[in-house]
Design a protein that fits this description.
Penicillin-binding protein 2a (Domain 2), binds zinc ion, 5-stranded antiparallel β-sheet, 21% strand
């Protein structure tokens, strides 16, 4: 039998894969030979072993101007020294060199690094505003040391270091929580963020949108080619209701004392002036504080960081008599023709409330002008604690006004639950109502609340939320104003009641406790107060005012701590503010040629 061996036939498929492998390998070897041998020298010259890098361009922070366009906060280019704390803090050689260049001890540099070491490998600003010589010397160190950088960046500056600190706030490196807040708002972290005041409240409006340069860089991060550029968009410009001139007068009036001044536009609730004394130097925060500097400011007994206009509360004393009058009107028991006899004091239960003098027969006008305690004790007892509480609530006492800066407190109106919680035994007597009617005892108010009440009286019942921001101007020039959103409520009283209050407050200026501070050619209205607060210390000096009497354009409240009578210290500041603002905003007063009125501080104790 013949065995025939079967010969296998090769198909094209058997050749395909080896052929492909050979082709690919040949291609790769050719490419490698081409790059390594043929084009080696050219590629070295062109440095085309590159990566893509983004050079971030920080957006200039939006400007902040006053109601007349005067610059309060701007930006200018400055040299900024930033570090990656993780690389720098253990590099002794670098620290010694930086100490020599910056003329600061290594200890101080380490102290500052401590405050930013929560983000050790992100570049964080350490010093701003360094000189061009120092910037050049640090730039030389960049070649040999990791983690340092000098840039020229748009940096925030303030036109006054102290006058605006309590409402403008300041900017500084963000902490972890602030970075998270930006991320939550869909924003990238910025080198600085607002830490308080307007800078904090309107962070998202002010910060702008960063730009950047897309660059090809070589292995040493040396830029080779600019691929694309995105220009940064500056933040919005914020126009505040603040009047720079009023702010200067208020700051000067409070100089060397503790206290606060708040002035509002009664037609809109715009804050015309907000001063708190003592103030702090914004510039010190911008440059960056050491821990010791921060502790020194924090522990300063005069509390310069405390914004007394919104974060301090006081007994209102006699300025509360205006609230009492409104309470009587709301309850329907008010009569300007009613007379009360003042024999120098009034007895309520076992408590005696003294008056400054034996005033005799007093009606509402004479009682307010002379600040007669007997008249108002009688009125408080007629209204009762519930009626007084209702009016306090209506006027916004015991709650925040909602002003657009942080740190506001509510003050206290002693409600029933408050009495149950804080009084032992939890009993409220008529003597307590009488004391409350005089603005003493368990009631406390903030200067911003009392300025708001001055504004309500001036506008005959319109209550607005006080606000510092007037208008936002977007980078494209579009103006955003939402003034309608600030109207709160109408305090319903017949018009003639408001007119009675205006007339009574005018008489305080004409014949009463403020008569030494009349302003020729301007009718204005006021009420002073003198708040006892601590045995052995002088009382706090209050003044609430508005003007002109017809069609008021400014309403204000002033407190000066531990100095004496309201008529001696707060009233003359009110006079200067009213005089300045009305003369600049009422054309006929310019024409009258009446000059400035000088402060006349008397030591006469006759008035409250
Ligand atoms: Zn009296």
């Amino acid at each position: 039998m013949i065995h025939v061996e079967k010969v296998r036939q090769y198909t094209y498929r058997d050749y395909l894969i080896p052929c492909l492998v050979v082709m690919v390998m040949t291609g790769l070897f050719y490419r490698l030979w081409n790059l390594q041998v043929v084009r080696s020298e050219d590629l070295k010259k062109e440095g085309k072993w590159f990566t893509r890098a983004i050079n971030v361009k920080h957006a200039p922070r939006g400007k902040i101007v006053d109601r007349n366009g005067m610059l309060l906060a701007g930006v200018k280019k400055e040299f900024v020294f930033s570090i990656q704390a993780g690389y720098v803090k253990y590099n002794t050689e670098l620290l010694n060199k930086l100490s020599s260049i910056l003329e600061i001890s290594v200890h101080e540099i380490l102290d500052k690094i401590k405050s930013i070491c929560y983000r050790p490998y992100l570049f964080t600003r350490l010093y701003t505003g360094i000189s061009v010589e120092k910037a050049a010397m640090i730039a030389e160190l960049e070649i040999f040391h990791k983690g340092i950088r000098v840039d020229s960046e748009p940096i925030r500056f303030y036109s006054s270091h102290k006058d605006y600190s309590h409402f403008l706030g300041y900017v500084h490196n963000p902490n972890e929580g602030e970075i998270q807040r930006l991320l939550d708002n869909g924003e990238k972290p910025r080198p600085v963020v607002g830490k308080s005041g307007i800078e904090y409240r309107y962070e998202l409006k002010l910060m702008g949108i960063p730009g950047g340069e897309n660059l090809d860089v070589d292995v040493r991060s040396k830029p080779l080619k600019l691929v694309s550029v995105k220009n940064p968009v500056p933040g919005s410009m914020l126009v505040l209701g603040i009047d720079q001139k009023l702010q200067e007068i208020a700051t000067e009036g409070l100089k060397g004392r503790k206290g606060a001044v708040v002035a509002l536009d009664p037609k809109s609730g715009e804050v015309l002036c907000l001063a708190s004394s003592p103030a702090y130097n914004i510039e010190r925060f911008k440059k960056g504080l050491t821990l010791k500097e921060w502790k020194d400011i924090r522990d300063d007994k005069s509390s310069p960081m405390l914004n007394r206009a919104v974060s301090s509360c006081y007994a209102p004393a006699s300025i509360f008599k205006l609230v009492l009058a409104i309470a009587a009107m709301q309850k329907g028991i008010f009569s300007e023709h009613h007379y009360t006899y003042c024999g120098g004091y009034s007895q309520v239960g076992n408590r005696k409330f003294r008056c400054l003098s034996q005033h005799g027969e007093m009606n509402f006008f004479t009682a307010l002008a002379k600040s007669c305690n007997t008249y108002f004790v009688d009125l408080a007892l007629k209204i009762g604690i519930d009626g007084i509480r209702r009016t306090c609530e209506d006027l916004g006492l015991g709650e925040k006004t909602g002003i657009d800066i942080a740190g506001e407190i509510t003050g206290i109106v002693p409600s029933e639950s408050w009495i149950r919680k804080w009084r032992n035994p939890p009993v409220w007597r008529s003597g307590d109502t009488a004391n409350l009617g005089l603005g003493q005892g368990e009631i406390s108010v903030t200067p911003i609340q009392m300025a708001q009440i001055a504004s309500v009286i001036a506008s005959k019942g319109s209550r607005y939320t006080p606000h510092i921001l007037k208008t936002e101007i977007l980078p494209n020039g579009i103006m955003c104003s939402n003034s309608n959103d600030y109207f709160c409520k109408k305090i319903n009283l017949p018009t003639h009641y408001w007119e009675i209050l205006h007339k009574a407050m005018e008489q305080v200026v004409l014949f009463g406790t403020v008569s030494r501070y009349r302003i020729p050619g301007i009718d204005w209205c006021a009420k002073t107060g003198t708040a006892q607060h601590k045995k052995g210390e002088k009382p706090h000096s209050w003044c609430m005012a508005f003007g002109p009497k017809e069609n008021p354009s400014i309403a204000l409240c002033i407190i000066v701590e531990s100095v004496g009578y309201g008529s001696q210290f707060a009233a003359p500041i009110a006079q200067l503010l009213i005089n300045s603002y009305i003369r600049r905003h009422t054309p006929q007063n310019h024409a009258s040629g009446v000059g400035e009125v000088d402060i006349n501080i008397s030591t006469d104790n006759q008035n409250l």
